[in-house]
Amino acid sequence: xxxxxxxxxxxxxxxxxxxxxxxxxxxxxxxxxxxxxxxxxxxxxxxxxxxxxxxxxxxxxxxxxxxxxxxxxxxxxxxxxxxxxxxxxxxxxxxxxxxxxxxxxxxxxxxxxxxxxxxxxxxxxxxxxxxxxxxxxxxxxxxxxxxxxxxxxxxxxxxxxxxxxxxxxxxx
Length: 172
Prior knowledge:
Structural class: mainly alpha
Helix content: over 70%
Largest sheet: none
Radius of gyration: 18 Å
């Protein structure tokens, strides 16, 4: 993984050195910072991840993926208001971005706003184009359960398992 980070750093330096179109170059640099920040986030290197994602945002503030991943970076740091702002910005930029909607629902679960979580997660779970529906169904099941809607929770969790039988989170 360290090799990947070094490679991304080298690529970033190359993009800085040889640029033909300023706007395209900025977006390319933003994508490299996004990739590096995302990789660091997956390694639980949260301060470094946040630093890279903030740099990506400076270069391309209109990228919904950057906004979503910033939301995740703030969520793991328990900066819920800031995380919510970034998830909502991601959805403003791309309303159909189901990953951001799912993450917003997850944030609402973590902050005890179960009705808001259910609203977002029902939309996410019913997006037939979403490639990881088990996540939304699982989160929705948890939101229903915490909202004392046990029958709906059971149905949502069963839907999660239909989509991914081995989901440890759902099984628990």
